[in-house]
């Protein structure tokens, strides 16, 4: 009996311990790990949305990731003389968070999430259409991330396997060549092109998401960066032919820079970053990957950089006098100003007073708009920066929406940022046609479609005797007037080799002239056409060789022993390697 009692007591204790253990072994469903999450369709669809969320951070397109390329270009200068100064001057020492680290950090967050999705999607049973949508978006977003990393930082680590994050040896990856990164971009975008539906096929689902047209557009960009003009041209022609859905130019150029369902995700947009209309989001500002809030404003701060300090912004960036005067050199078929000036730069032009409610060549009779876009709220040209002057930038701000009272610093602007528009497809097709076949009527016709939208007189083939002449027209007239102060000009200057030719560098210097107020002088809006004698300086005066790319942050280099600096970290000249592979078209005078 004593032995039996001992046995029963021991058994009771064992079962008690095991039952207690089972009761305490409870999984917190609100604290999932990557091992438990992503094993069903719903999880993966949430992960895709989380991936899109990362392209709306400060380092991607909510602030510096967008404006850094603009300030690298020749149509924008840093009127605040702080924050972006080293990047405007192209001489960052590699120790500044804003451009050397934040962009890098946030794009690798996108890559991390895309890699996670791709590590899980093959293990989940789902219909082929659903699989293609989930995996195709992940491929596109990873390709997008590496496209910008390669064109901003030149040589970066290439991580495509999510399992690499659990091993310190693979996590601390070394740089690979820019070509290897762009090879991966082409691979990812190629898959996205075949897997994703077109905007037409996707219907409501596709609105605001990447489509096959988005992937095709960025594929053409990636190919042209390495002068693969024939391959890019075939894709561009397919986009124009409607192979990836129907795209067209919006009748109103300004619709590409306004918020609201009637303007955003329109027929001209191949891809845009989604933000909540002003005042419709939360109140918390989600600047970085760690301060995530369910009450996020879901807005961007590009307006805070671009708009005038007189309206309440930071006034960091201004339009260049060169761009302003470029718009003024050519008038519409009824002798009015190019309407793109109105939507790009916040200048007061006396002519605008006579436009409202009237028909013009840009807004012909029968068009219900009849220039109602020309508001009376801007009655003089405001200063971009009240201390340094400069021309305020209108794009992606409320300056031309008669909502200047909505301008405020921080992540509050709700205008979707259009990353690629159909006009880019047309002008790139013209460039490819010119590169492959010289100046032809086909190339001229592509350009004239863009000019016709804003009622500029059509170009004539006879005015361009050589491919160099037509390239000059595309690179330094058509593209800056169509895309002035948008993201992408800096990348164009890289792919054209303008940093590697003395004639082109001198041309950039002239485009980058600006004027600061002297001692005792009041700041000016800066619309005068400047020369060497009248300018204070040029944004390219301090250019260091190799700094056409942004340096990798020194703290990142210190943390990763396998990582080496790029040409900006080393101030090394990229001109020889570029010229060995690619042609740089010489400067020509279009008036000759």
TrEMBL record:
Gene Ontology cellular-component annotations: cell outer membrane
RagB/SusD domain: residues covered: 268-566
Domain SusD-like N-terminal: 60-221
Family annotation (Gene3D superfamilies): 1.25.40.390
Primary localisation category: membrane
Presence of keyword Membrane: yes
Pfam families given in the database record: SusD-like_3 (PF14322), SusD_RagB (PF07980)
InterPro entries found in the cross-reference section: SusD-like_N, SusD_RagB_dom, TPR-like_helical_dom_sf
Subcellular location field: Cell outer membrane
Annotated keywords: Cell outer membrane, Membrane, Signal
Domain of life: Bacteria
Family: Belongs to the SusD family.
Descriptive protein name: RagB/SusD family nutrient uptake outer membrane protein
Native source species: Xiashengella succiniciproducens
Upper lineage: Bacteria, Pseudomonadati, Bacteroidota, Bacteroidia, Marinilabiliales
């Amino acid at each position: 009996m004593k032995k039996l009692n001992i046995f029963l007591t021991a058994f009771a204790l064992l079962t008690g311990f095991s039952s207690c253990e089972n009761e305490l072994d409870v999984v917190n469903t609100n604290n999932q790990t990557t091992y438990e999450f992503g094993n069903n369709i719903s999880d993966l669809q949430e992960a895709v949305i989380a991936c899109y969320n990362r392209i709306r951070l400060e380092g991607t397109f909510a602030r510096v990731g967008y404006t850094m390329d603009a300030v690298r270009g020749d149509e924008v200068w840093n009127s605040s003389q702080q924050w972006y100064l080293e990047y405007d001057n192209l001489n960052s020492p590699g120790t500044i968070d804003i451009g050397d680290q934040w962009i890098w950090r946030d794009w690798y967050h996108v890559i991390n999430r895309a890699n996670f999705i791709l590590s899980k999607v093959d293990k989940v049973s789902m219909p082929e259409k659903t699989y293609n949508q989930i995996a195709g978006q992940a491929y596109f977003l990873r390709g997008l991330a590496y496209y910008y990393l390669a064109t901003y930082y030149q040589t970066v680590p290439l991580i495509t396997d999510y399992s690499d994050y659990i091993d310190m040896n693979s996590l601390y990856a070394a740089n690979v060549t820019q070509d290897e990164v762009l090879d991966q971009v082409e691979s990812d975008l190629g898959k996205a092109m075949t897997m994703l539906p077109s905007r037409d096929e996707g219907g409501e689902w596709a609105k605001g998401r990447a489509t096959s047209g988005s992937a095709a557009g960025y594929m053409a960009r990636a190919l042209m960066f390495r002068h693969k003009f024939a391959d890019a041209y075939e894709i561009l022609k397919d986009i124009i032919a409607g192979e990836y859905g129907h795209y067209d130019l919006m009748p109103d150029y300004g619709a590409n820079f306004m918020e609201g369902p009637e303007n955003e995700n329109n027929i001209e947009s191949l891809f845009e970053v989604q933000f909540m209309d002003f005042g419709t989001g939360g109140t918390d500002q989600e600047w970085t990957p760690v301060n995530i809030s369910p009450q996020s404003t879901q807005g961007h701060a590009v307006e805070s950089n671009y708009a005038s300090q007189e309206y309440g912004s930071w006034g960091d960036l201004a339009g260049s006098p060169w761009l302003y005067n470029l718009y003024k050199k050519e008038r519409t078929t009824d002798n009015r100003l190019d309407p793109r000036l109105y939507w790009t730069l916040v200048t007061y032009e006396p002519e605008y007073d006579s436009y409202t409610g009237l028909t013009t060549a840009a807004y012909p009779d029968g068009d219900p708009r009849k220039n109602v876009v020309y508001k009376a709220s801007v009655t003089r040209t405001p200063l971009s920066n009240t201390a340094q002057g400069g021309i305020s930038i209108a794009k992606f701000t409320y300056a031309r929406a008669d909502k200047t009272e909505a301008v405020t610093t921080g992540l509050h602007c709700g205008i979707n940022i259009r990353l690629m528009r159909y006009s880019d497809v047309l002008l790139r097709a013209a460039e490819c046609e010119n590169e492959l076949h010289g100046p032809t009527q086909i190339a001229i016709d592509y350009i004239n479609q863009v000019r016709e939208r804003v009622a500029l007189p059509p170009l004539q083939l006879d005015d361009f005797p050589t491919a160099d002449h037509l390239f000059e027209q595309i690179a330094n007239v058509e593209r800056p007037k169509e895309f002035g102060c948008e993201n992408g000009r800096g990348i164009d200057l890289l792919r054209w080799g303008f940093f590697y030719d003395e004639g082109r560098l001198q041309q950039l210097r002239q485009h980058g002239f600006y004027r600061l107020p002297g001692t005792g002088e009041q700041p000016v809006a800066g619309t005068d056409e400047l020369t060497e004698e009248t300018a204070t300086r040029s944004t390219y005066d301090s250019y260091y060789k190799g700094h056409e790319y942004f340096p990798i942050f020194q703290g990142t280099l210190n943390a990763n022993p396998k990582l080496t600096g790029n040409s900006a970290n080393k101030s090394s000249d990229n001109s020889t390697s570029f010229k060995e592979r690619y042609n740089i078209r010489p400067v020509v005078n279009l008036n000759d």
